[in-house]
Write a structure and sequence with these properties.
Number of strands: 10
Helix content: 55-70%
Distance between the termini: 70 Å
Number of helices: 32
Strand content: 5-15%
Radius of gyration: 33 Å
Largest sheet: 10 strands, mixed
Shape: globular
Length: 756
């Protein structure tokens, strides 16, 4: 009844008011008389009119800007992914993506497309939007600086950092002396040109350096700590010097520059002594995600905008103001992490690539069309490397570092990345750098950033002292060693229970290592320690509850698969345990085991997926990783599929062939160490017909009678499976189990698939 009533009301209202609208428009047409309105005749080629309208829409400034943003993000992410795959920071790929989209490649070979996508009149919008991205990015960089670390470890770091600024600055200024007449823009004083060349040589990319340190697992080493501290001190010092240089260039005279510098000092004092305590108070009261509401967020964003605006008005550039605003944010790591999450995605994923492309549009490699220009570029690169790399290395050696660490610090400090592009764009906007010298310096930034990874690898090779996550005490081959790699604390606890049940009574004759690897792209440098605690503490507490001696390893990496394999192979472990998700138990018969449906008709493909011929679990996050680990590991691998495992005392072990005899050795370990009850399913009669298996079972029964039982009936009751905690099965038998499609697969407990 209500449905009919609602329908009548709908028809009445819509129909009545539609008629009213039509009547008003019809009557309103009479009001047009005498107003010079000409109505277009509905005739001609309507398709051409439509196309003309669409072309006009495409030329609208907003449409052009949106097309630019979409293209830039896609290309930047693609290049970033490619360079991350070859072991380089993704920022290099994004920098190169900017150059590719500019006149150096697309503009040269596809000029019509480039002119349509990046018309000159649209570049102003792109520039301002990229500047907003830079302001947000510099704000994040300021927040990522840990000023407490600078206070605690400032002595050596300041010596190295300042040496790594002064030496390349002096060399850059000297180089400017020789190239001033040829490359300085007309009307630019030597002091302005020379100071910008000096500061451009002195910059270190703190965010790129921090990311490299994390990816190589160096953040907890003395070398990594010194490098990050030096880069932080370098960032602060270099930006202060840059602010002074900008003030001198903009002011035009020395006296005016002094006024600007005086105002800048006053501005910094106000930010440190007045604004910072106020923000700390606000941050202390609102340090949780729930309390960090819109009015509170508005306070911090307004601080950022006012700081950037004040710095721009003073004449030291808005980016310095954004950097300082980030540096004075409350030091509470939890607060900073929450706030960075609100800013970083938009700043880094959406807006920052616009800056790379805008820089690429200014970079015209085609202008370097003479061997002399390339020689000058090579000299610029050589001076940059000599000043930053060797200057930092010599300073590090002077304060007592080893040659290996000194050279590594030099290689890291030589990383310029995005920060170099920021400085170069400021110089270009101020008219201090010509297009040719700007292009040469961009190439230098790319080369010095790209060479960091290979330089570190070469230094490690020369000194034969590679960083390894494998604990030193694991060199004793007489011990039974298990490595478990876990993604979450809960999964780590489950894997530890399995490992403990295998070695519980072996005491000092066994070693269990629990390892967690985090992707460098998913964790901030200042949050590493908190994340490590969050991942490892629950597993350590579980080891104490189990009274299990355990070594814990935490590492930030950019390649989890390879690091798991390398750690396992280099440590010569006897067993590697890894986990898969519970979600693969959802669904139909085969879905409960493999995440597939019963529509799969070729079970051979399933085993192929495990052995590396095809991707395992192609739609799950564990597919490629599991396949890679199984294919490359030199020791037995256990793949654990969790279904709420609590204990490891009732174990079901199907045996399909004599090749499964190795499973009985695991049964023996479980019984001897954990007192587990093992039920062996003689699925094909191999247990009673294989002498080796029979003898092993007899030896177990002599030591622990009534702990192992042989089942010959292949019809498994649901009630029996519900009493089991864990099913242990070989990789080959897993294939046979899937082929059989037995109905009891729906009720399997947690599974441990073993590759011998």
């Amino acid at each position: 009844m209500n449905s009919i009533k609602n329908s009548l009301f709908y028809v009445t209202v819509i129909g009545g008011f539609t008629a009213l609208i039509y009547w008003v428009i019809s009557k309103g047409a009479a009001l047009e008389v005498g107003r010079g309105i000409v109505h277009k005749k509905i005739e001609g080629n309507h398709w051409n009119d439509f196309l003309t309208s669409m072309i006009d829409n495409l030329k609208h400034p907003l449409a052009i800007l949106l097309a630019q943003i979409v293209t830039i993000i896609l290309v930047a992410r693609l290049f970033g992914w490619v360079f991350r795959k070859i072991g380089q920071p993704s920022v290099i790929g994004e920098m190169i993506a900017g150059i590719v989209l500019g006149p150096s490649l697309v503009g040269m070979y596809f000029p019509e497309f480039s002119a349509a996508l990046f018309p000159k009149e649209s570049l102003g919008n792109l520039q301002f939007l990229s500047q907003i991205g830079l302001i947000l990015f510099m704000f994040v960089i300021g927040m990522e600086l840990d000023l407490k670390v600078l206070k605690n470890k400032a002595h050596d770091a300041v010596v190295i950092s300042h040496a790594s600024i002064v030496i390349p600055f002096a060399l850059g200024l000297s180089l400017a002396y020789f190239i001033y007449h040829t490359f300085a823009p007309v009307g630019v004083e030597f002091a302005s040109f020379g100071l910008f060349m000096g500061i451009a040589m002195s910059i270190t990319a703190f965010p790129v350096l921090a990311r490299i340190v994390q990816e190589r697992g160096m953040q907890k080493t003395k070398l990594g700590t010194i490098a990050i501290t030096c880069a932080a001190a370098d960032d602060i010092t270099a930006w202060c010097i840059l602010a002074v240089v900008i003030a001198i260039v903009k002011a035009g005279s020395f006296t005016s520059a002094l006024y600007v510098i005086g105002l800048a000092i006053l501005y910094v004092i106000v930010m440190l002594k007045i604004v910072r305590p106020f923000l700390k108070r606000v941050g202390d009261l609102n340090s949780t995600r729930e309390s960090l509401n819109k009015p509170v967020v508005a306070i911090f964003f307004l601080t950022l905008l006012f700081s950037a605006y004040a710095a721009e008005l003073i004449g030291i550039h808005a980016l310095f103001g954004a950097f300082l605003a980030g540096a004075i944010m409350p030091e509470n790591n939890k607060f900073r992490n929450i706030f960075i999450e609100k800013v970083e995605d938009v700043a880094i994923i959406v807006l920052l690539p616009l800056f790379f492309v805008f820089t690429g549009l200014r970079t015209q490699i085609g202008l370097l069309n003479d061997p002399y220009l390339w020689k000058v570029t090579a000299v610029i690169i050589a001076v940059a490397v000599a000043g930053k790399f060797f200057g930092s290395a010599l300073a590090a050696k002077f304060v007592g570092q080893s040659w290996k660490d000194s050279l590594a610090i030099g290689a890291l400090m030589n990383t310029r990345g995005l920060m170099e592009l920021v400085v170069l764009n400021i110089g270009y906007d101020l008219g201090v750098l010509s297009t040719e010298i700007f292009t040469m310096m961009v190439i230098m930034a790319l080369v010095t950033t790209f060479m960091t990874g290979p330089a570190l690898d070469f230094i490690g090779f020369i000194f034969k002292d590679k960083i390894n996550v494998v604990p030193q005490e694991i060199g004793n081959k007489s011990k039974y060693k298990i490595l478990l790699s876990f993604a979450t604390p809960e999964r780590g606890k489950k894997l530890l229970r399995i490992a403990n049940s295998l070695v519980k009574k072996q005491g000092d004759n066994s070693i269990v290592t629990a390892m967690h690897l985090s992707l460098s792209t998913e964790i901030h440098s200042f949050d590493v320690k908190d994340h490590e605690r969050k991942m490892l503490v629950p597993v350590i507490e579980e080891s104490e509850r189990l009274n299990q001696n355990m070594v814990s390893v935490f590492k930030v990496t950019n390649d989890i698969d390879t690091d798991i394999i390398d750690s396992a192979n280099q440590g010569e472990y006897d067993l590697l345990l890894v986990g898969l998700g519970q979600s693969i138990f959802d669904g139909t018969l085969l879905g409960k085991i493999l995440g597939f449906t019963t529509r799969i008709v070729n079970p051979d493909r399933l085993i192929d997926k495990f052995t590396g011929k095809e991707g395992l679990f192609e739609n799950s996050p564990f597919d490629e990783r599991t396949r890679h680990i199984i294919a490359k590991s030199k020791m037995p691998v256990g793949i654990f599929i969790d279904k709420d495992l609590e204990e490891v005392d009732q174990i079901f072990m199907p045996v399909f062939s004599k090749e499964d005899s190795f499973l009985i050795e695991y049964a023996k370990k479980l019984i001897n160490n954990n007192g587990s009850q093992i039920t062996v399913l003689d699925a094909s009669g191999e247990v009673k017909n294989t002498r080796d298996i029979q003898e092993t079972i007899r030896s177990i029964e002599q030591i622990a009678p009534n702990h192992i039982m042989i089942m010959h009936d292949r019809t498994i009751k649901k009630e029996f499976l519900e009493t089991q905690n864990l099913m242990i099965i070989s990789l080959d038998s897993w294939k046979k189990l899937i082929e059989s499609q037995s109905t009891w697969l729906n009720n399997t407990p947690s599974v441990l698939i073993l590759k011998p």
